[in-house]
């Protein structure tokens, strides 16, 4: 009996067929600004899967929320997002599970202000307009930063903007500050007269999370393990080949090499175990978003963590 991964089906991304001639396809969702684009570019997973009689179909997504929607629809088996899209996926009852987690990349996440801004510390954000992507890791970062300064979310004027739109508004002076992640942080520092008011240190870990449909994770754990192994291998390569990594990512992201270099030098690629501490990090995000009425119900994130 041959396992056939069928893409684009309702809810379930894989099925079993007795036809040994059927092609076996694993569909992976990725974003340009993430570790899976490195894996895709290196081609090592494709080669390994081909040796096992499988092929890999790569689907690009502009944002994490769109990727988890595809996970919900069953049009991908596996993907990577930031720390907030899985919260929304769970709130929407998406049949998925966390299967892996990356190292914290808090250094490249933060709140930026113009170099000549009168905003010198977090408390100065009161009554200011801050641009960030709604429901993103930056949204959570803003909430935690305000909390640290003794302010409330209602003390600022939020401007819900994509990183690109926030950059334009920042340069035009229509927002006072913006919260974003690398390489947009680095590019703003280098080219838009911006400086970090604070990084994510002590506020958010801003991790990569690797997710899969429940069907794929439960029925094909060997495939999940292989994918994670190859992510780890490609991460090792990325950490030890910064020059080649910059050459790879700059044209893909259409961002200058100096910004990419600054970004990759202040993060570590790789996978670590999902610990109780990491589960608690995700639980806090879920709790904060529920309190802010960003998600409609309370969540227990342990319910969607893969049990080994």
UniProtKB/TrEMBL annotation:
SUPFAM superfamilies: Periplasmic binding protein-like II (SSF53850). InterPro entries: ABC_SsuA_sub-bd (IPR010067), Solute-binding_3/MltF_N (IPR001638), SsuA/THI5 (IPR015168). SMART domains: PBPb. It holds the Pfam family NMT1. Keywords: Lipoprotein, Palmitate, Signal, Transport. The keyword Cytoplasm does not apply. Belongs to the bacterial solute-binding protein SsuA/TauA family. This is Putative aliphatic sulfonates-binding protein. It comes from Oceanobacillus piezotolerans. The lineage of its organism: Bacteria, Bacillati, Bacillota, Bacilli, Bacillales.
